[in-house]
Design a protein that fits this description.
The structure is a single chain. By secondary structure, the chain is an alpha/beta fold. It is 47% helix and 18% strand. It contains 8 helices and 6 strands; from the N terminus they run αβββαβαβααβααα. The protein has a 6-stranded mixed β-sheet with strand order 2-1-3-4-5-6, with helices on both faces. Helix 3 links the parallel strand 4 (71-78) and strand 5 (103-107). Helix 2 (55-63) runs parallel beside helix 3 (84-99). It is elongated and about 55 Å long. 30% of the residues are buried.
Length: 180
């Protein structure tokens, strides 16, 4: 039993991902060290059961991202089960996002995790408008809320919308300089 719990906890992974520029749809791929990153939006892919054997690792890995970002998407399509310890870890993450003013979105909840969030009221803490069946619409919602002035100074083009956001940010910055 102890070996099973250890193996299940060790098989749990969290990976930072971004849209794959080669894909036609909004498919995501892992970020390599040389790949550009977005300073406003972090997308994390969670893989494996979220239970007492993996909850502490899950919580700590996600919390490490929160102070440095404005928006966070947690992709949970490969999380088949959440127990009470996993729900508590997710609640801590939600509370930390609220404290740091990070906009949290959750995508791809399977049946049992969705039922767990409903039963505990965590879905209300996250906000129904921030829970998406698929990642693409969550990315679209996040991009719609990006600060284009930050985009204007970002050297990367991670999303298809980045060039438009950069132009908009440059124009907004120029307008604000003219007003002062």
């Amino acid at each position: 039993c102890v070996l099973f719990i250890k193996r299940m906890g060790d098989s749990h992974t969290i990976q930072k991902v971004l849209p794959d520029p080669a894909a036609r749809k909004r498919e995501v791929a892992a970020i390599s060290a040389e790949r550009a990153d977005c300073p406003q939006l972090t997308i994390l892919n969670v893989d494996g059961a979220l239970f007492f054997g993996a909850a502490a690792k899950f919580e700590q890995e996600i919390l490490n991202h929160i102070p440095r970002i404005r928006m966070l998407i947690i992709r949970m399509g490969r999380v088949p089960v959440i127990d009470a310890t996993g729900e508590k870890a997710l609640r801590t993450i939600v509370d930390s996002c609220h404290k740091h003013r990070v906009r949290l979105r959750v995508t791809g909840l399977q049946t049992q995790p969705g039922e767990m969030l409903q039963a505990t009221g965590l879905d209300h803490a996250i906000g129904g408008e921030n829970i998406f069946p698929r990642t693409g619409p969550a990315i679209d919602a996040a991009i719609a809320q990006m600060d284009s002035i930050i985009c204007a100074s970002c050297p990367h083009s991670v999303f298809h919308e980045c060039p438009d956001l950069k132009r908009k940010g440059v124009l907004m910055a120029a307008d604000s300089r003219r007003e002062t």
